[in-house]
């Protein structure tokens, strides 16, 4: 989800709710403790230099059980970060500590923001040496009326 998308959604909501992909909700007393730009400058296993940039939202749970972040307040935090940090309309990555600090993509399901699990991947698969997975074929699905190019009397064997 891009920053412009969350900015368009927030004014339509009464409450801000985040939900993990497994259905668990982030406790409603969460805080957004950071909004920032995270850049990653790296080289992949194929030797290609890459740059990535995301907008980072950090969610945090405190012992402040009465806290509720309202959509207008989050929109104010976003607008302030755009003004002070020069944030562009980039993809949002959410940082949230469950059992460890996790990084999530963000989607909206019409009611809540969903933290989508991120996965690792090889960015240089052509240089990585990992063989292409072979397509599995069921022998029972092969046609029994296919004829072989070799017959017992052909001398090809």
Tally of separate domains:
1
Tell me the span between the first and last alpha carbons: 60 Å
Q: Quick one: biggest sheet?
A: 6 strands, mixed
Task: Going across the biggest sheet, name each strand in turn.
Answer: 1-6-5-4-3-2
Q: What sequence of helices (H) and strands (E) makes up the elements?
A: HEEEHEEEH
How many individual β-strands?
Answer: 6
Percent of residues in helices comes to 10-25%
Tell me, what's the shape?
A: elongated
Mean pLDDT: 89
Detail the poorly predicted runs. Answer: none
Number of distinct helices: 3
State Rg.
25 Å
Strand content range? 25-35%
Structural class: alpha/beta
InterPro entries: DUF6428 (IPR045534)
Pfam family, one: DUF6428
């Amino acid at each position: 989800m891009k920053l412009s998308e969350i900015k368009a959604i927030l004014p339509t909501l009464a409450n801000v709710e985040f939900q993990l992909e497994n259905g668990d909700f982030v406790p409603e007393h969460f805080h957004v403790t950071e909004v920032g730009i995270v850049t990653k400058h790296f080289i992949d296993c194929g030797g290609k230099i890459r740059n990535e940039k995301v907008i980072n939202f950090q969610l945090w749970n405190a012992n402040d059980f009465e806290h509720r972040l309202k959509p207008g307040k989050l929109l104010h935090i976003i607008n302030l970060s755009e003004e002070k940090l020069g944030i562009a309309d980039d993809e949002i990555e959410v940082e949230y500590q469950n059992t460890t600090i996790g990084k999530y993509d963000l989607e909206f399901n019409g009611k809540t923001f969903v933290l989508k699990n991120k996965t690792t991947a090889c960015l240089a698969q052509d240089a990585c040496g990992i063989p292409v997975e072979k397509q599995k074929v069921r022998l029972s699905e092969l046609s029994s009326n296919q004829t072989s190019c070799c017959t017992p009397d052909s001398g090809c064997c």
